[in-house]
Design a protein that fits this description.
Layout (H helix, E strand, L loop, with lengths): L15 H10 L10 E7 H4 L3 H5 L4 H8 L4 H22 L8 E3 L5 E3 L5 E7 L2 E7 L5 E6 L10 H4 L2 H6 L4 H21 L17 E3 L10 E7 L5 E7 L5 E5 L1
Parallel strand pairs: 1-10
Antiparallel strand pairs: 1-5, 2-3, 4-5, 6-9, 7-8, 8-9
Length: 250
């Protein structure tokens, strides 16, 4: 067995069931190291492998899981961390035991010992992952059911110009949620989190924004895109314009 990254659980070799299921779900037969890779996992599909998933976590990841109070939250975060490691291993054609992850000063996942950039997002019921070999990326996922509570957050999410253009009725809440997800993806790519208020900038789908004005340490342009990968979840990606995106559902 390959040497484990520092902090990885020593029993992580016994994850054959999870690895086999992941290999069956992986649908990128070409070399996916070029461009951006985006993936969405419906965590309900992966629940049978929660014990295997726990064996793939590092000590730091396990500690973050244990801080969750509800067992369902612990289970889903465990699956998210394990699937993220499997996602990166599949891109590199490597063992998940050789994927070492850390957190930067803004709390973003970063790669140790390898070139590239990654982002992850976890929401109730789903996890999303992104990878780029050449430029920072940001991904976000939210359940479509959250649209029902978005109206009360409109002034916090929408720029005044966006707020004025919002439609009426249920479509309004759907658009607000989609806007929230795009802005979260942008702020993750910028590496500033919610230090930059959402209502201070516009984020139309398909537009290119520069992360510099949001306070990114290394400014870069990113294109915001929405992805229809699951009927119950909104997914958005912020990635360098011009890079092809390979998207799949796990």
């Amino acid at each position: 067995m390959s040497a484990l990254p520092r902090g990885m659980c020593a029993s992580s070799a016994t994850t054959d069931g999870l690895q086999e299921a992941f290999d069956g779900a992986w649908r990128l037969p070409h070399a996916a190291g070029s461009g951006v890779v985006l993936a969405l996992a419906d965590l309900a599909d992966w629940r049978p492998y929660r014990n295997d998933a726990g064996r793939l976590l590092s000590e730091a990841e396990r500690a973050r899981v244990e801080r969750k109070r509800r067992s369902i939250d612990q289970e889903e975060l465990t699956l998210t961390y394990a699937l993220h490691r499997l996602f990166l291993a599949a891109i590199w054609n490597a063992s998940p035991h050789d994927v070492a992850l850390a957190r930067d000063g803004a709390g973003r996942p970063c790669l140790q010992g390898r070139e590239g950039f990654t982002s992850l997002s976890h929401a109730p019921g789903a996890a999303a992952f992104a990878f780029s070999a050449s430029a920072a990326v940001g991904v976000d996922v939210e359940p479509r059911a959250r649209a029902s509570v978005m109206d009360e957050l409109a002034s916090q999410v929408a720029h005044p110009a966006e707020h004025a253009a919002l439609p009426c009725g249920t479509v309004r809440n759907e658009e607000l949620l989609a806007l929230w997800v795009r802005k979260e993806a942008f702020l993750k790519a910028a590496g500033v989190g919610l230090a930059c208020e959402m209502n201070t900038f516009r984020a139309p789908a398909g537009e290119v924004l520069d992360t510099g004005w949001a306070g990114a340490a290394v400014p870069q342009p990113v294109r915001l895109s929405a992805w229809d990968l699951h009927p119950h979840f909104h997914v958005a990606l912020a990635s360098a314009p011009g890079l092809p995106v390979h998207a799949l559902r796990l």
